[in-house]
Amino acid sequence: MKKIVFFIIVLIFFSCEKDEYFPINESIIKTTTSPSELDIKLLTKLDSVTDGEGVSFFILPDSDNYENIPQDPLNPITSEKVALGKLLFHETATGGNPKTASNLFTYSCASCHHAAAGFSAGVRQGIGEGGVGFGSKGENRSFNSIIPTNDIDIQPIRSPTILNVAYQDVMLWNGQFGGTGTNEGTEANWTGIPENALGFQGVEVQALKGQDVHRLLVNKKFAKDFNYKKMFNKAFPEILKEERYTRETAGLAIAAYERTVLPNQSPWQKWLKGDYNALTNKEKRGAKMFFGKAKCFKCHNGPALNDKNFYALGMGDFDDTDSALVQDDTNFPNVKRGRGGFTNKPRDYYKFKTPTLYNLIDNGVFGHGGTFTSVRDIVEYKLKGVPENIEVPEERLHRLFTNVQSLRENQINNLVLFIENGLRDPNLIRYVPDTINSGNCSPNNDVVSRIDLGCE
Is the dihedral of CA 226, 166, 354, 351 positive or negative? Predict the structure, then answer.
């Protein structure tokens, strides 16, 4: 509280001069406006929930501030890696290992993680190979009816966003990717994940394994045919040339890029840095609810507004309908057990990783099973504390889900506004390349997508 008082005194002292700089909690914050009474209350709330650290606890670094972006010690971020990874992530020419020949070079990482949908899929179930169409934000992507079902690249759980993955040490809803930190002690369950044993963190493991799972192919021929050799040379000069143009280096470049994809231009981030006009008064009141009575901050905290824990909140799974196809070879019962499906520990059954809330409104579908279609629906679900999934035993539900307090209608409205608008970075397109080296359409290159995306 003393820091907040000091902060306010300094603001008053400099109230006649704009763009002044002063230290707060060892961070340099730029203030462009003076705080109102509501701002001061919110600042005080942030101070109280962070043991005095305040706004600096929540600030995301600039995307080129590599020193302050969490990274894997085995894969230091460099501008050359990021530049290469940015292109490879969106490059449909990486789609070089399809099950159906006609799908060659028609899909990419970004097919299921694109900027238009907040770097998620924009539909309940992301589709790589075997998908057609895009729409305006991925909402029109569907299964290609002439492709055999088993040849379609789909997963039995909703595609998560890559926003803020730098603040995760494990990846996937069950956290199985990653060989350090959170996954220490789970080594017995790393069968089929040799990258974990190499000591890589989750972002790197995901970028490596994803190439296999999603039928991508990067090798020397790819690098030569699509003019990527020079970029690989700049990104990995320390690696012998015969080992330089590979799945491994491609994965490390993609992971480095993903770590820089941060929603640091959202109104909330601007407010944290001293622009008190970045949020409306209703959004500020919603933020007070978020960090107060609604208890959202208990799980959604830190710069990414997500912790590294797993919780059972009783949300629904895929239900094998027109909007979500569950294939026979996905071991779906295990998928539905969440973290427990990986650790094989009953206490972990039905627990899923806390997602970031940034750009949530752009996703279009919510929950690990995509069973919610609005931010308000999922907020009200959490506040009511009544499980959607009858398979989840009551004793498995987390107390933060069942032990809730009621909010008034206007409080819920403000909370939703804060999540939808305050946490939305409107300029994610800056993370998308203008063109890719192949000249193909991106993020998809099938005939229907090319029309939707204006590539024809």
Answer: positive
